[in-house]
């Protein structure tokens, strides 16, 4: 008997941005359907397609690298930058494509969908329901922005070489002398794709495949992380609100009553449990994405320097070709860093809010619990790339400064 797909899927998929997130990752075979209980034939086919993608991109990476090695003496400096960009992007795609094989990634996504999403916590209070609506609105906006970036990136990457070929007269009856077709990605091939129109057409159509998969893996994985971060910030806002609403005795100056201390004990237990949920999920995110973020930051370190070096020639072709790409790369670095900085800034407020709780009215038992809680929240939460480098505004500024320093050094050697 064939196993069917889950009849009742998690309720978070009633939200449009969660549906879009899952659907788009499924198109590149990288949504962990089976970890979420989907054992249907469709899930098996997507898992098989995912393995096919990895094998395909490993092969195309070899072909692109072979082309660079064979023609490295004749490739112009401007075109060499595009080859390096394609190689680095493919390498980053392969690293992200390995995530569905990792238990930590599958565990993190499953926990987010089934437990951590604010939809599972909106019953806590009226403020929690309000926070859910706010976070959902932010996630919808972020989803639209990421999808717009993907559409513009894919069109620009493929249509720019097409317009250049048209401008240079490559589609005329006779090909111009000393000219060849330009592609968004170059490969070492057994047929002529640079002077033959049929060969050009084959590679032009094929290049839409990597220029969909690679930006999608970059953009949608970023979106997945952003959605998790926004929900974590929402959890922290709910926790901060719970701390602000801690009650005081009805009459100040009088000893606290037994009923008051019992109420405080229950509230302390709830906020500590909520804080532990946030902290545990932060640990799951770190285990799932620390290596991914490490590779991501290293990619930006190299690419920011490369884009500055290419644009520094001030040639119109270089500025047109790499100006927009440089803006996108810097923008991605900034938005990722700012997203993780939100977690740090919110967690730093926890210490002050916990200390502002009316602990002076508590009995000895509650004070002991309170002191332990206060000690734990002194350490701000945050995600570290590779378990070493904190991701945030400081790491962003360090990468930009280092890229500028490397660019100046390389430009000096070139001169």
Q: Shape from CA axes?
A: elongated
Q: If strands are numbered along the chain, what order do they take across the biggest sheet?
A: 1-2
Q: Total number of helical segments?
A: 11
Count the strands?
2
Task: Calculate the terminal CA-CA distance, rounded to whole Å.
Answer: 71 Å
Structure class? mainly alpha
Biggest sheet features: 2 strands, antiparallel
Overall pLDDT level: 86
Low-confidence stretches: 1-7
Classify the beta-strand content into a percent band.
Answer: under 5%
What is the helical fraction, as a range of percent?
over 70%
What integer value in Å does the Rg equal?
26 Å
Count of individual domains: 1
Topology as H/E string? HHHHHHHHHHEEH
Q: How would you briefly describe this protein structure?
A:
One of its GO terms (molecular function) is olfactory receptor activity. The chain crosses the membrane at residues 49-69. The chain has 415 residues and is mainly alpha-helical.
Secondary-structure blueprint:
Elements: H1 16-27, H2 41-71, H3 77-97, H4 103-116, H5 126-167, H6 197-206, H7 208-244, H8 258-311, H9 316-355, H10 364-376, E1 384-385, E2 389-390, H11 393-414
Can you give a write-up of this model?
Belongs to the insect chemoreceptor superfamily. Heteromeric odorant receptor channel (TC 1.A.69) family. It comes from Cydia pomonella (Codling moth). Keywords: Cell membrane, Membrane, Olfaction, Receptor, Sensory transduction, Transducer, Transmembrane, Transmembrane helix. The protein contains eleven helices and two strands, in the order H-H-H-H-H-H-H-H-H-H-E-E-H. With 415 residues, it is mainly alpha-helical. The chain has one domain. Strands 1-2 form a two-stranded antiparallel sheet. Helix 3 runs antiparallel to helix 8 and helix 8 runs parallel beside helix 10. The chain is elongated and about 95 Å long.
